[in-house]
Amino acid sequence: RQEIRKVVQALEQTAREILTLLQGVHQGAGFQDIPKKCQKAREHFGTVRTQLESLKTKFPTDQYYRFHEHWRFVLQRLVFLAAFVVYLESETLVTREAVAEILGIEADRERGFHLDIEDYLSGVLTLASELARLAVNSVTAGDYSRPLRISTFINELDSGFRLLNLKNDSLRKRYDGLKYDVKKIEEVVYDLSIRGLNKEATVGAGGEK
Q1: Is the pTM of this model over 0.70?
Q2: Distance of CA 36 to CAs 24, 167, 201, Å?
């Protein structure tokens, strides 16, 4: 357990470094730097893969869930960070398989150290909160089309979560937070439409959705 804790602490440190790097997109000038920030974040994920490789050696493969509590939180955070990078790069939702690949672990439970489905969903819900914040900061930075695109994305995400039967209590609570994120983004979009800035955004984006 001591050995596992040591690796988890190192993972938490790397996750903090990636988060600090990506937080820069919320600043006005950060929008121009998005590709560079994503590239740097992906380099940090190389360290994450090495650390997770080390973690795999610290316990018997068939006892994943016995020790799962130790790394559950940091893994959820890493899912969020990977999802945020992919969103910033392509404005799409990363799949569980793609996150597993970024982290250098398995998507399939049968194959050993894997990305649990609930950890993946928790990370995605954290992404929703981050995007709600990004929508507000985009307006401040004078980017009026981004909140409209974020709104479409979050509404699709919300529709997807509505189809799930969430039995896990902590996941249910996190999902309740998604409703507030949807509301927050809707208010931003409404504010833009009241000021007539959403038309400007659509024209400025060259008819981009």
Answers
A1: yes
A2: 11, 39, 24
